Write the structure tokens for this entry.
Amino acid sequence: MFRPRRLRRNEAIRSMVRENHLRATDFIYPLFIEEGENIKKEIVSMPGVFRYSLDQLDEELKEIIDLGIPSIMLFGIPKHKDAVGSESWNDQGIVQLAIQYIKKNYPSLYVIADVCFCEYTDHGHCGVLEPSINSKDGYDVSNDKTLINLEKQSISMAKAGADLLAPSGMMDGMIATMRDVLDLNEFENIPIMSYAVKYSSAFYGPFRDAADSTPSFGDRKTYQMDPANRIEALKEAALDVEEGADILMVKPALSYLDIIRELKESHDLPIAAYNVSGEYAMVKAAAQKGWIDGEKVMMEKLVSMKRAGADIILSYHAKEAAKLL
Ligand code: PBG
């Protein structure tokens, strides 16, 4: 009889035949930077995750570096919002200042800028609105007007010193637009990690509290993908590869492990998985109630993303996980 249990008899042999491993260097840790002073505010639906003003950030940055996490992803919470999200391309905007500060004082940290508008618009949508009789709310996000602003935001983030740009708005043609404008401005060495396959997901709820980016009306279904679709995900990824993406991301991670696997098998680019806010919040809530072992569930979830094919994991669990590794 073949006995698979022979290779499970103790931890020594289990670790020798283990197929996938988590490392601190797998992670990107998302950070919320709020304009203002003296802010260190825990996000209610994301225990252990805080909004920081720039003057309160040092301790957090040092901890991230000490834990061996190589990279952070910045989300800005500006004071001033308007219809087009113009703060997002202000060279003195909160994320631009944060990038400059971090690259100057912590040059070893790899700084990624999320490139989008929902944190900067007063309506909370990911771009410029235009009237639309075809959409249920009477408005829709104009793809091509948003692309024009995306160029401005990309250049501003690149000038500030971002190591990598990660557009999350799901506008058609966003990768080609960014690649062109970056190359024209001598930022040809800045890579783009595309939120290539981003679903219109209820798992983003806690993030929207964290970043004040809940749409004031309607939803994001005219630009983010339908959770029921798989073939469309392959199409989205193929388009972004053609347009020049360097890394492909799938978001959320857990309900979409099949999509991570498919992208890994159909492309030779690194694949990132975004373990989103709702996925984090569910583990925390159940652990607080004593219904699950939070640490064990966390590690099991994270390694499942690697097993599915993710090379990179964006996660609010990054620090806790790195501590256990
Ligand atoms: C914004 C953006 C969102 C997230 C990352 N970038 C929210 C959204 O699309 O509504 C979600 C992250 C998370 O839930 O952790 N463009």
About this structure: The mean pLDDT is 97. The chain has one domain: 24-324.
